[in-house]
Amino acid sequence: MLDIIRGGNFSLINIIIYLISTAAVIFITLPIHEWAHGFAASKLGDPTPKWQGRLSLNPLAHLDPLGSLCILLFGFGWAKPVQINPRYFKNVKAGMAITALAGPLANLIMAFISVLIANLGVFVCLYTDIGIFYYIAVFFAFVASINISLAVFNLIPIPPLDGSRLLGVILPDRIYYRIMQYERYLFYIVLLLLATNVLTIPLSIISGWVKDLYLFVSSLIFPDNVVKYVSYLI
Q1: Is 34 a catalytic residue?
Q2: Could you report the per-residue pLDDT of 193-218, keeping only the tens digit for each?
Q3: Sorting pLDDT into bands at 50, 70 and 90, what band is 229?
Q4: Which residue in 85, 73, 14 sits closest to 49, CA to CA?
Q5: Which of 46, 87, 92, 206 is most buried, judging by how many CB atoms fall within 10 Å of its CB?
């Protein structure tokens, strides 16, 4: 939302489409993200997500009000973390890494599909002059952009984000558990960095690299004028 305003795209139709796409992300994408964590853990032998009702796509089982608000304002946010018990994993560190990556990977897959649909929407709009496909393209471009941002944001190696779980694979247990003791305080630091744009700017740069990759792949399928148009949307 704030990026739209700063970018000068403060039109009623852009705001409406952004709000609708953000709602889709909050009520569809975030539950899929958290379900992916739980599904991966369950496949690796941990029954905890199932016991806690997290193997569900019901948004009420996953949403965090503050995290949803941050998605609306900044394009970055979170849901309630899925609880994992690594004692059930045969290989604890590998299991933690797989379950941590499952959520961001789900976001990246959804973003890629959305980019392709956005390109298809622009293609149909340009070559048939059916205007509704433009708004479909804008919708899926916003969905793709937010999904990419979520994936990048969640891979930050700071508790309680998914990337912090990867630290357990790299760091000695003693150092990792000491860091996790300060999870609550580090969470507030993340919020402060988001609010002051200290974190938003580098995340936007990395997200831009992912978008460029997706647009490059799209250029192998769609005409250059279509991909160029989509690049303005996302």
Answers
A1: yes
A2: 877 878 878 888 999 999 999 999 99
A3: very high
A4: 85
A5: 46
Which pair of tokens denotes residue 94?
Answer: 């590998």
Distance of alpha carbon 85 from alpha carbon 21, whole angstroms: 34
Cα distances from 101 to residues 5, 12, 26, 74, 120, in angstroms, run: 32, 37, 19, 22, 29
* Pairwise CA distance, residues 53 & 177, whole Å: 27
Q: Which of 69-78, 158-167, 172-181, 219-228 has the highest mean pLDDT?
A: 219-228
Tell me which residue of 169, 14, 219, 28 sits closest to 111, measured CA to CA.
28
The pTM (predicted TM-score) of the whole model is 0.85
Considering the candidates 21, 34, 133, 150, report the single residue annotated as catalytic: 34
Residue type for position 23: A
